[in-house]
Amino acid sequence: MVRLGFIVGLIALIGVLLSGLAAYRVHDQELALDGIALARAIDVHASLVQDRLTERELLARVASGLFKAPSTVKANMLQPLRSAIYAFKTDFVVAAWIARLRPNELTAAEAELKAAGFTNPQIRDFDDQPLDIKALDKPINVLMDVEPRNPETLNIPGRAFDRHSVVGPMLAQAMAEAKPVASDPIPLLRINGPVGVVLAAPVFPEGASEPAGFVTFSYELSSLMLTNDDSSLFAVALKDPRDSNDEFTANEQGVVTSRAVRQNGPAPSMVRTVTFGGRDWSLDYYAKSNATVRAQQTATIVAAIGLALTGIVCGLFGYVAYNNLRLSREIEVRIGFERRLTAVIDELNHRVKNILAVIQSIVTRTLRHGADIDVARELLIGRIHAMSNVVTLLSESQWQGVKLKGLFESRSIPHADRIAVNGPDITVSARAAQSLSLLFFELASHSDEGLSLVGKHPHIVANWEVTGEDQDTVFHFRWEEFNTSEATRRVDSDFGLILLDRVAPEALGGTAKRYFTDVSYVYELTAPMDTVVDMTERDRTEQFSAPVRPAKK
Q1: Is the peptide bond before 148 cis (omega within 30 degrees of 0)?
Q2: What Gene3D superfamilies does its record include (predicted)?
Q3: Which of 155, 163, 166 has the alpha carbon at shortest distance from 136?
Q4: Residues with Cβ < 8 Å from 119, sequence gap 6 or more?
Q5: 3-state SS track over 230-294
Q6: What is the C-alpha separation between 193 and 293, in angstroms, rounded?
Q7: CA triplet 181, 42, 182: central angle to 5 degrees?
Q8: Lowest-pLDDT range, 141-145, 346-350, 450-454, 495-499?
Q9: How far is it, in rounded angstroms, from Cα 119 to Cα 125?
Q10: CA distances for 7 relative to 321, 332, 536, 552, 553, angstroms
Q11: Distance CA 473, CA 153 (A)
Q12: How far apart are the C-alpha atoms of 142 and 98, rounded to whole Å?
């Protein structure tokens, strides 16, 4: 089990390491793929915005090039350009002609505006405030024509934009640089109008160094630079060219608002620069989803799947290995049981043969030629009964020996009630038990011949003791029949004499002697304790009787 647990733990450790490695790789790959996808989408968007801006700037250049010796006081200067403008692009908010008029041309310009049907033909300031024409001593930039003409744009012509904070400097820069110039983001048409930029292209008459006016196009900022679909990976914002701490963003309806860049807020994922109207515009791109969090979630899922698979593999492996181990142990137990059974049978055969040999000897010696049949039959039955009794006692103790006092029970020897037993209750070996059981029977069976000299049956004392220590321990047994004599005691049979004098002492590795005193018959047996107990035989029997256990894995 320890080895199986170690293997399962090793597999689990490897599975956890592989799951962690897979999660780490997936995390890095997800971050890399998200970064590549986001960078590609941003590059595509920035390229599309740049193409759109280039087209609008080209439109302004083409429009300015179509003017030939324009008359600055005319109010329908865009009439020749209308078909060309709409054919080229139609997403501008307002296209306008801003004429650069000298003070002496302002009166004629007002008459032209009135004749063109504009609602307020008066030359005025950009905020519709009156303008003191007589105080002017240099040319001013006046809006003379617009496209499209609708109720919202008809009141715009007549305004002068020189003092406008955004348009005025833009026109001055376009005149100085002689190329299209874009304005800062401003509300278009009205104060709360859509936020956009104005692109002004100067118109120079042939051979002139000063422009006759400007063709301008106004574009909403959302459609020009901030357009983006809902399924895109990012949101785009335009850095305010006047304040780096502000930026413009557009919502889903295209409404552009300005917001302050938070100092502790998320930094832009990427920044791209586009060119429009002679200036650079910075576009900030913010990822809509947190790539790091998404990569962590994906890595967590991969790690969970890896751990689950590891658990399943460990469980299946442990289940199969445990079943195989259990089956192997059952087989080992069965093999061990069969081996033990074989050994027990062999041992039993050996002991049965010994017992049969003893019984054969008993029968042969008891029923010798010329013996009294009645006496022989009685002795034979008693001796076999004694053998049977000791075998029963050994079987009950699984052949691990017999208590010495148990051999004096009434079922094993006759006249047990007349025997006084005294001695330590030691356990003798199977071999010693068989010899002592027959010995006690022979002694007891010959003690009942008539009465003693005092008119009573003999009183018997069986006494034993153990003396010495360790290897020198000796077993002493003494059998004494009181109130008896050689004349009153039954004469021992030939088998009895052989058993008393030779078989029992030799079986126990000791010596014996028998004799009569004035009042008793004595039998003494001395043997080493090693043969009486026979630890070798007991250990072997315990090994046979112990339950079979599988070897440790």
Answers
A1: yes
A2: CHASE domain (3.30.450.350)
A3: 163
A4: 154, 155
A5: CCCCEEEEEECCCCCCEEEEECCCCCEEEEECCCCCCCCCEEEEEEECCEEEEEEEEECCCHHHH
A6: 40
A7: 5
A8: 450-454
A9: 15
A10: 10, 22, 42, 16, 13
A11: 137
A12: 5
CA 536 from centroid of its chain's CA atoms? 57
Angle, CA of 463, 465 and 467, to the nearest 5°: 155
The β-bridge relationship of strands 124-125 and 159-160 is parallel
CA 230, CA 243: separation in Å to the nearest integer?
28
pLDDT digits (tens, 9 = 90+) for 424-477: 988 888 888 888 888 888 888 877 554 555 556 668 899 999 998 877 899 999
Please give the helix or strand (H or E) that residue 61 lies within, else none: helix 2-65
How many other C-beta atoms lie within 10 A of the C-beta of residue 377?
13
In contact, 109 and 144? CB cutoff 8 Å: yes
Alpha carbon distance 52, 88 (integer Å): 12
d(CA 81, CA 92): 14
Q: Comparing C-alpha atoms, which of 462, 400, 460, 455 is closest to residue 432?
A: 400
Which pair of tokens denotes residue 497? Answer: 């004499």
Phi/psi for 91 (5° steps) reads -95, 5
224-245 burial, b if ≥16 CB within 10 A, otherwise e?
A: bbbbbeeeebbbbbbbbbeeee
Burial profile 305-326: b = 16 or more Cβ within 10 angstroms, e = fewer: ebbeebeeebeeebeeeeeebe
- 535 vs 152, 400, 517, CA distance in Å? 126, 9, 37
Q: Which two tokens stand for residue 94?
A: 């307002």
> Helix or strand or coil: residue 158?
coil
CA dihedral 227, 228, 229, 232 (to 10 degrees): 180
Task: Compute CA 165 distance to the chain's CA centroid, rounded to the nearest angstrom.
Answer: 66
Residue 200's beta-bridge partner residues? Answer: 181, 216
Write out the H or E segment, with its range, that includes residue 523: strand 520-528
Buried b (16+ CB within 10 A) or exposed e, 193-215: ebbbbbbbbbbbeeeeeebbbbb
Comparing 128-142, 272-286, 396-410, which segment has the lowest mean pLDDT?
396-410
User: Are 353 and 546 contacting, i.e. CB atoms less than 8 angstroms apart?
Assistant: no
Amino acid at 392: T
Neighbour count for residue 496 (Cβ, 10 Å): 22
158 within 8 A of 121, measured Cβ to Cβ:
yes
For residue 206, which phi and psi values (nearest 5 degrees)? -65, 125
Q: 342 is written with which tokens?
A: 């074989």
Q: Which two tokens stand for residue 109?
A: 């310009």
**Number of residues written out for the chain:** 553
